[in-house]
Automatic annotation (TrEMBL):
<feature type="signal peptide">
    <location>
        <begin position="1"/>
        <end position="25"/>
    </location>
</feature>
<dbReference type="GO" id="GO:0004674">
    <property type="term" value="F:protein serine/threonine kinase activity"/>
</dbReference>
<dbReference type="Pfam" id="PF13947">
    <property type="entry name" value="GUB_WAK_bind"/>
</dbReference>
<dbReference type="GO" id="GO:0030247">
    <property type="term" value="F:polysaccharide binding"/>
</dbReference>
<keyword id="KW-0325">Glycoprotein</keyword>
<dbReference type="InterPro" id="IPR025287">
    <property type="entry name" value="WAK_GUB"/>
</dbReference>
<dbReference type="Pfam" id="PF14380">
    <property type="entry name" value="WAK_assoc"/>
</dbReference>
<protein>
    <recommendedName>
        <fullName>non-specific serine/threonine protein kinase</fullName>
        <ecNumber>2.7.11.1</ecNumber>
    </recommendedName>
</protein>
<keyword id="KW-0732">Signal</keyword>
<feature type="domain" description="Wall-associated receptor kinase galacturonan-binding">
    <location>
        <begin position="36"/>
        <end position="96"/>
    </location>
</feature>
<feature type="domain" description="Wall-associated receptor kinase C-terminal">
    <location>
        <begin position="222"/>
        <end position="261"/>
    </location>
</feature>
<dbReference type="InterPro" id="IPR032872">
    <property type="entry name" value="WAK_assoc_C"/>
</dbReference>
<dbReference type="GO" id="GO:0016020">
    <property type="term" value="C:membrane"/>
</dbReference>
Amino acid sequence: MSSSTDSWLLIHILLFLPLFHPLFAATHTAPKNATCHSTCGTLPVKFPFGTGFGCGHADFARYIRCSSGTLQFSTGTGVYTISSIDYPSNTLILTDPLMSNCSSMQNSGSFSLDSSSPFSLVAEDTFVLLGCSTTSPVFDQNEELCNTGSGLHICRGMYSCAGVTGIGLTPNAPISTCCVYDPQIVLGSGFMLDLPKLQCSSYTAIYGYGGDEGDPMKWQFGISLRYNDSYYTEACRNCEDSGGLCGFAGLNESFACICRNGANTSNNCFGRGYAWSGTWRPKIQIKMGVGGT
């Protein structure tokens, strides 16, 4: 190729760059598999949560995702099902499939919550350690980790359940192997419930008593978490008002409005700002003079 041809190509590339630059400057690269939905199964999914990577707020995307119609919460100790979300109170309920309840008790895994995450335990949560060894550190009299007041009533209630046979106990067994502790007490780093270290067979969490503290069959078992709701912005509200879902894109995880047609825009789905849907066609306007010339 001649040097004159090279010069011709370079000149035309430089001439066309200003035409394309505003478009790409205002456009976000669509995140991989960026199909965002407003529901996961039967649960409504609203900002700051999302159904997949690129949906919702980036700080929440590493913890929450939708898998096969189930909204899941991930921590260092496992994956848990989100059974409900109460958006007005900024709380959600986690269900651990290995966690014990009155109907069924079994050896449980551990539970952890990253202390730097946008989630925190709700103060009303009651954690109960079941089938603990008498040498467990939770019974250290110098530490006072167990609630020996109202906690005794809860332990008696749990040990009255027929489900205790699942951890090798008999109904109404002595509660000397049961411990109820306040979730504000930190066991290990962050919010870490390490059952092997605590020498306990199982655990349960109670977030409500169903109006009857005397009947453990009516108790509400699960882990209630409160999430930080300060992430909502005017940009997200503008996106939602246009029918879009708030998300993020690019290496810097900047705001993106995911529209129902698959377009990804930095503003909204009404057409204000630039939207990129995978193709670009310039609009050609022909100005007609008087007489059609």
